[in-house]
Amino acid sequence: MKEFNLIINGESVGTTDYFDVINPADKSVIARCPKATTVQLNEAVAAAKSAFPTWSALTYEERRDRLMQLADAIEDNAEELMTLLTKEQGKPTKGFADLGAGFEFGGTLAWIRATASMTLEPQVIQDNDTAHIELHRKPLGVVGSITPWNYPLLIGIWHIIPALLTGNTVVMKPSEMTPLTVLRFGEIAKDILPAGVLNIVTGEGEIGAAMTSHQEIQKIVFTGSTPTGKAIMKSAADNLTRLTLELGGNDAGIVLADADIAACAPKIFATSFINNGQTCAALKRLYVHESVHDELCEALTNMANSMKTGNGFDEDTDFGPLQNQEQLNIVKALAKDAKERGANFLCGGDVTDESGYFYPITLVSNINDGARLVDEEQFGPILPIIKFSDVEEAIDSANRLQVGLGGSVWSQNIEKAQKIASRLECGTVWINNHAMIQPDAPFGGVKDSGFGVEFGEAGLKEFTFIQTVQTFKS
Questions:
Q1: pLDDT tens-digit profile of 129-178?
Q2: Where is the active site (predicted)?
Q3: CA–CA dist 20, 179 (Å, integer)
Q4: I need a labelling partner for 217 at 20 to 30 A (CA). Which of 119, 358, 393, 397 fits?
């Protein structure tokens, strides 16, 4: 059985303690992962701090060259990395609409190359006979990255690349559920990036907690649950550590009476069940006008019934397992509550294969606000469909929860849809689509879905502080 190592100061580092990584498709142990100590974390932070002056002194062009080399090296190792993704996360090698491991890997390459092409130029505030004043963006120092298990490689890239491009160095902790792809990425990166620029430590909650309270880490970037995000805020407060928090969502989509159901249904299905529903910005609550409700339910059910859930390495698998037992238990509990409330299960709803953490694509109608399946983020392949008659009710329902990551409006009347979209309390709103993100469009949440943004120029700025340079001419 393969053992992986930590990446500290450009070296592969072993540990005395390891933990098992589980394949969610068959519950087998696929590898032993190093369990870092706080001493090793401190060594990683010290290495990042030591590397910072030299790395930050490079130009954007010089750092960009290294990151583009990294993208090329990652591409050269495509097969191995995608295989690791399927083994530890469960997503199919291809899957429905090719939204599996290949999708995550392709997104990883696209994000590295697009982000590395960006820059933050000085901004001239004043230039006259009295003074020349410029606004400069300076790197913060050591950035701590804590990532989740749903997109281990891609979300890691979202954290790492803008931090490195802007001149910071990084200490990263991937989820203990899916650490292997990130550790292999680190092995590749250590031969391209200078020692100490990127360090990867793995372990359980105590390592993450030690990072968030560490005096030598200037910023924490976290993607994960709202409760953990709030705990990080408390831990980081004593050091005034900067934060970017992309937390839980329970995105609502509103389908208006004039929506083109034939055109909308495939997009709604794909964006609800992308990565088996294990996506922060997936469509998780679907509010449908009564006049098109039955038509949309039928279209979605037909698609669901054509899908196969199974091992991600099987060629005909569309959707793999949920990543872990705890998440499967959450989905089962929400389904149980919906059944007890008399909801109508259009398809799915019962576990028939217990060899892995499998749950079928499930659609639920005759359900309302207040049900757990509607009010709580399911993060799995089960979608509640709520009928409405008055669009004002749908807007109120979409906004009633204390989350605000994404939302969508579906209509052929773009002007009307835009007006409704502007009233949704969320960081990103889509019209006639959902969960579509790209490297140059800022993305982040409001309310309990966090604060700060990723992607684009606004995302780069999150990894910098402002230095105002004032030059007086007399």
A1: 999 999 999 999 999 999 999 999 999 999 999 999 999 999 999 999 99
A2: 246
A3: 10
A4: 119
Residue 56 to residue 63: CA distance in whole angstroms: 9
CATH architecture of 6-247+449-472: 3-Layer(aba) Sandwich (3.40)
Question: Where in the chain is CATH 3.40.309.10?
Answer: 251-438
Extract the tokens encoding 314.
Answer: 């099987």
Q: Which residues pair with 11 in a beta bridge?
A: 8
How do strand 406-410 and strand 251-255 relate by DSSP bridges?
parallel
- Helices and strands (DSSP H and E) totals, the chain: 15, 22
Catalytic residue, from 104, 176, 246, 425: name it: 246
pTM score > 0.90 for this model? Answer: yes
The DSSP bridge partners found for residue 144 are 171, 220
What's the rounded Cα separation, in Å, for the pair 205 and 429?
33
Q: What is the pLDDT of residues 65-101, one digit of tens each?
A: 999 999 999 999 999 999 999 999 999 987 666 789 9
Bridge partners of 430?
408
**Parallel/antiparallel/unpaired status of strands 219-223 and 242-246:** parallel
Residue 246: active-site member:
yes
